[in-house]
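FORM 7B - TANDEM STRUCTURE REPORT

SECTION 1: FIRST PROTEIN
SEQUENCE AND TOKENS:
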Amino acid sequence: LESALKLVPDAKSVYGVSVVHPLDKKNEAQARLDLQKWQGRLGFRYLSDMSLEEMLAAISGAPRETIILYLAVSADNTGKTFNPRDVAERLSRVSNGPVFGLYESILGYGIAGGSLVSYDGIGTQAGQLALSFLKIGSVPSKIPAILDVPGVLEFDWRQLKRWNLSVDAVPPGSIIINREYTLWERNRTEMIVAFFVLVVQALLIVSLVERRAQRQRAERQLAQ
């Protein structure tokens, strides 16, 4: 939410999207706890214990100054199960404001981005921990209870453009995927070099023309 507010500073409310799966409910409980410090500034509504259709209807009716915080949906209260990526895409299609998420695996499927859980990062750190056990042996007292893997700030350029969010407001050090570069951004170095080559050529041509004119004047004077 902190990174989302840098991109949507005028936001007045936050819709948290989560449903009945135990992991989703755990995420929602953690979100309610972590987001308390913004209670005085923003209005919060948690869309839980709903069917997916009810959730989509609530999102489509949200005010434009709303941030959608997608905690992940893998099942709804009707018992139907879903691919969280598919839900993210459907939320993005009906939403009146940008959708931010928690998982790197959903980036590129409708969310603008956020501080995302990276499964690559978790796997890398778990692998490094396993390798250290193989080298020096595992000491129960030194085995961490939790792998402390920080979130990765990542954003989807297409969603930033869709919602007219400033790329300059993206937190420093963020990764931006799907970025489309202008001709100038893609070929800046080549264009600068070409410009200087043209300038040098123009100066040489002017110099040659001036020398020719001087020679012609000298020849006329000699002839006279």
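SECTION 2: SECOND PROTEIN
SEQUENCE AND TOKENS:
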Amino acid sequence: LETLKIQPTKQGTAYAVFDFGGGTTDFDYGFYRLPTQQEENEGWEHVLEHFGASGDQFLGGENLLENMAYLVFCSNVDICRKHEIAFSKPLDAKDFAGSEMLLAKTQAAITNTTMMMSHLRALWEKGEANKNAQGLTKIKLINCKDEPVNCDLAIKEADLLTYLKSRIQQGIQNFFIEMKRSF
């Protein structure tokens, strides 16, 4: 608040914080005010009167990126089945028909998800689209026999951007719902 040159007042200035992090998004609400006489006698120069806190445990940069990787694998299940490529499922993602054959908690599955997340990072962080005109991405993944396999995966960037917009919008809506509840 001081960095933004927001000054405390006697009545209090309402604040709401939307802290978008790597793993979660945290919300905090309250008033920034001048201290009462008693608080001033105790050495307080200003007071943050906290009304409430909340958040979204799955709305963080890395969680969104993990969900994007999952969506790419889900849209390429035929290739994953053909090459016996397993991947991991984010905690907040939904299963799909036949997922038991492809979802695993093995090192190979986690590595495949991490590799896809790394590939999608430029789209997520910088909005850089895949330059391949065919819409296919060549990526080396690990099959269930721990062997490297070259795969051509379709990455539907428009679908991923739609997912991001929708998921972030849901987080913003939750922020305002919690703010109303707190105040």
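SECTION 3: OBSERVATIONS ON SECOND PROTEIN
The chain is about 40% helix and 20% strand.
The first strand starts at residue 13 and ends at 20.

SECTION 4: SIGNATURE
Preparer initials: ____
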